[in-house]
Every structure is written in C-alpha cells, then in structure tokens.
Amino acid sequence: MPQWIYLLLLFIAFSIIGYLIIKQVPSLLHTPLMSGMNALSGITLLGALLITDLLARNGQIFLSYVFGGLSVILAMINVVGGFFVTERMLKKFKKGDNK
Amino acid sequence: MSELSYYLFGGIIAVLVLWGISLMRKVPSARLGNLINAIATVLAVVLVLVYHDIIKSGFHGLIIIFGGMAIGSFIGLLLAYRVKMIQMPEMVALLNGVGGAASALIGAITIFNLTTDYPLFEKTTAVLALAVGIITFVGSMIAAGKLAKILDGKSVILKQHSLITILLLGLLVTSIILNILFPSIVTILLVTVFSNFFSIVFVIRVGGADMPVTISLLNSLSGVAGALAGLALANIPLIAIGSIVGSSGLVLTQIMSKAMNRPLKDILIGIPLNQDTPTRIQEKLQEEGSPEDVTDEFLEKLLKNSKRVIIVPGYGMALAQAQHLVERLARMLEDRGAEVIFAIHPVAGRMPGHMNILLAEAGVDYDKLYEMDDVNPLFETCECAIIVGANDVVNPAAREAVGTPIYGMPILNVDYAKHVIICNYDKKPGYSGIDNPMYHKTKGISMLLGDAKDSLNRLINLIK
Question: What is the Cα–Cα distance from B161 to B155, expressed in whole angstroms?
C-alpha cells in the first residue's frame, strides 16, 4: 500500500477518536475547550518549520524569509496565545468550598 | 533519528494530546489537561526539529525558525495577557485566524516544492490546505471584527445571497481542480481569490446569535487546514492533532446548531431566519404587566422572601458588562439564606460557554452554573427567576408557537417560575424576531427595562 493511504487512515482514525472524546465535555467548559483546541490547531507550526527548512535548503532564501518566517510567526502566535489564554480562563473557575 | 523512533514518538505525542483533552472534561483537571497539551506541542516541535535534522537548514533557516518562534511567542504572550475576559470571543477568533493563515502559506509553498513520491495526493491536499486555510483566516478575521465591534455586527445579506455563495463555492472547487492539474502562480491566485470571496460572503451574513455556530465551525476548519497541511507534508503529529481539532470543532458546531434549532446547512449556505412568520402570536395578551409588580415594595418583598432564586444570563449581560453586579446580587441573596443558581443556555452569548467564563471571572462558583437539562425541572420550585439580558433562549414561543422559526428550540422554562423579574434593555424581540409572550403577561412578571446595570443596582439596593 502506498504511504498516502496510511496517512489518510490516520486522519480518519484521529477524527473519530477526537469526536468521541470531545462529545463528553460539558457545556460549562466549552469556551476553554474551544480555546484549547484552538491552541492545538497552532500545531501547523510543524508544517511551517518544515517548509522553512525546505526553502532554506533549496537556497530560496528570500521565499523562506517571507513565507517561512511569516508562517512560523503566525503559527507560534496561535500556539502560545492559545495555551496561555486557556490557562487564564481555567484559573477563573473556582468551586464553592476552596475559595 | 530512525524511522521507527519517529513513529514511536509521534504516537506518544498523539496519545498525550488525547489524554490532555480528556482531562479537560472536568474543571479540577482541566488546567493539567491544558498543560499536557502544551507539553505535547513542544515535544512535537522538538521531534520535527530533530527528525528533519533542522540544524542542516543553514544559517538563514535557523535564524528564521528560531527568530520566528521568538517573535511569535512574544506577540502571543502579549495578546494572551492583555486581553480582558470580556474580549475572549474575538481573541479566540483572532488566534484561530492566524493559525489558518499559517496553514494556507504552508499549502501554497508545498504546491511548488513537492517532497513525496505520490505527487497527486500531495498536490491535492496542499491546495486544499491553502483554500481551507484562507477561508479560516478571512472568516475568523471578519468574525473577530464583528465581535470586537470594529465591523457592524449585524448580518449583511446581499441580493441572492445563497445563490452567490453556491456560485462562489463552485468557482472555488473549479479553481482547486485546475490547480491540481496545472499548478502555477495563476491557478494559486485563482484559488486564493475565490477562497477569499467565498469566506467573506459566508461570514458577513452571520449576525449576532449565529456567531457561536460560526466560531465553532471556523475552529474546526483551522484544525482541518492543519491536518491537510500535514497530509501534504506527510507529517504524522500534524495530521493527528489537526484532525482531532477538526472533529472537536465539529462536535461543538453540532451542539450549537441543535441548541439554536437551526439546521447547520441553513447557517452554512446562508438561509436567513424566516422573518415573515406571524410574530404577534399572543394577541390576546397585549396588556402590560400590572404596575404594582415593579414597585420597590413589591420587588423588595419578593426578593427577601424567596428561598430559591434562579438567575438566567444572556448576551445582554455581556453587553452591559453586568456580570459583577449579577454576582453581587447573588451573593447578597445567599447571605440572606436563599439558594441562588444560574441557568446557562448552550447558545447564550456569542461563543460556546460564553456566560460561564464571564460569571467565573466575576467570582461565581462553577458548581452553581447549571446546564439547561439540569436546571429546567427546578424552575417550578423557585420563588423567583431573574432574567438578565436573555431573550430567545427563554422565549416560551419555542414550545407553543408552531410554525415560527424558533418552534422546537430547546429553551429554559423560565416562565414556569412563580415570579419572573426581567432585566432587559427593551421589549424588542431577540435575534429570532419572535415576540416573547412573557412580556405581555399580566401576572407573575416584573419588567425592568433599561441598562441591566441600573436594574441590578436597583435590586441590590432594595435588599441591602
């Protein structure tokens, strides 16, 4: 089997697993969940690193600065901003007895 | 690093993320879950840097990679710590958008720099990453602009809106196929332009209460864009995590559109709510509430004698920034011995869970925030329910008025309470355009119109 079939299967498998886990999150936590997922979607940073590396190795320095640099910065904003915002939100949730 | 250990570590990272997400199902473990997700992300970055021998990408490559990460972290931290809780919806949309933009750039570059030996699959997924990434980016920016009130928050409906949307989608699909067959700057530009227009047309017509659905959907798309970029680059952690985010956004989208009684396809292709249906369904109940129900004496007696009070917040509370006053009122009622709980409708506010974070920020304990199904049986048992800026989610017409757009929408049964105090800005119908029959009742209702802050201050002063 060619490799791309494995990749596609991986995509489908994780979509289903994700669906099953997320279904059980109570609506109380929907905003932190969403911003947590949002932070995780910044994982596209991996792709940004790969294309930067690719372009730099091919000697396309200008392209790698513009496209690679921009995509690394944007993805990193997503990751760092996302995780810290989620943390700030979750810190707000307190229970009656341990105030 | 060997192939085997790369897959092994990739698997460990994916399992870590799943564990982190499952910890986010409960409040006490949610922070740990978020931390684990962050650690998994860092590990994934390290894995990719090591496996692809990034040190060999040369001087410029290293500068871009580490410099870019430093700049991005700095901006991300700055945003995360300067944003106020009240600005959270637009912040989530903004962050979502930048992630989408990154995926779009990756897609565009990959089209010209194929790395695998199955070019058709790679080209297809790369151009899809470009298209979905741009839709995510543009859509999120418009949504953020609307939420931050930089753009007009109302829905903008063009003539033949649905037709234009479908037409643009057709053009977009055509340009994607063209790009797969003839990858060139021109076809990439075509995909970019049509994705842009499609996204704009799709999001400008989303107004007010459709926002939670849209935000969830954009969140899902940003994950899908990442996963597509991962498929194009054959990067396992990226595929795994991207698809988890994609399906999680989809779950939220489903929950939201169900709670709004709007089929997802109506929201997607832009079918507006049917505004022509009879809105004055309770003609016989046109009289105003009896005046003594809003006198100080009446309200004071009511509040002081209530054993159980249910507070129902809506977007109006967020608009008036009245969450701290709501908390104060609740605390004062509790000090008098009453039991106070909060009834949270799944689509109250402008993003999923909006009311919960506002009230949590104001200092309300999360175990007092009840979900719709848990709180609905309790309305009959409470002496007093207080609505703060909520409208459609408490509209009994959803149960009774067959044929109106909100008929069948699950609502909070506030009208079952013995008495209801309504702190709304005016008597205008909510987003659905359907009159609320409660506003015309003569018994059991106290209408306090005007700024929710003023109304709440008045109630607070009465029981001081």
Answer: 12
Burial per residue of B32-65, b for 16 or more beta-carbon CB atoms within 10 angstroms, e otherwise: ebbbbbbebbebbbebbbebbebeebbebbbbbb
Chain B positions touching A23 (Cβ under 8 A) are 251
pTM of the model: 0.86
B458 exposure class (CB count in 10 Å sphere: 0-12, 13-18, 19+): middle
Give the separation between CA B455 and CA B459, rounded to whole angstroms.
6
Query: What is the ipTM metric for this complex?
Result: 0.92
Rounded-to-integer distance, Cα B305 and Cα B383, Å: 8
Nearest of B450, B430, B222, B200 to residue B320 by alpha carbon: B450
Buried b (16+ CB within 10 A) or exposed e, B248-279: bbbbbbbbbbbbbbbebebbbebebbeeebeb
**How far does A24 lie from chain B, in Å, by closest CA?**
7
**How many other C-beta atoms are found inside a 10 Å radius of the C-beta of residue B377?**
10
Contact B249 A34 (CB under 8 A): yes
Say if the Cβ atoms of B79 and A31 lie within 8 Å: no
Structurally, at CATH architecture level, domain B287-462 sits in: 3-Layer(aba) Sandwich (3.40)
Distance between CA B13 and CA B21 in Å, rounded?
A: 12
CA dihedral defined by B415, B420, B421, B424, rounded to 10 degrees?
0
Q: Do the Cβ atoms of B239 and A93 come within 8 Å?
A: no
Residue of B392, B415, B435, B454 with catalytic role:
B392
Amino acid at residue number B109: I
Chain B closest-CA separation from residue A1 CA (Å): 12
- Residue A99's pLDDT band (cuts 50, 70, 90): very low
CA Rg, chain A, in Å? 19
Pick from B92, B98, B238: CB nearest A77: B98
Active site residue B210: no
Phi, psi of B385 (to 5 degrees): -115, 140
Which tens digit of pLDDT belongs to each residue from A15-73?
Answer: 998 888 888 788 888 888 888 988 998 999 999 999 999 999 888 889 899 999 999 99
Beta-ladder partners of B308: B339
Where in chain B do CATH 3.40.50.1220 domains reside? 287-462
For residue B357, count CB atoms less than 10 angstroms from its CB and return exposed for 0-12, middle for 13-18, buried for 19 or more. Answer: buried
Burial category of B294 from C-beta neighbours within 10 Å (exposed 0-12, middle 13-18, buried 19 and up): middle
Nearest to A51 by CA among B324, B181, B232: B232
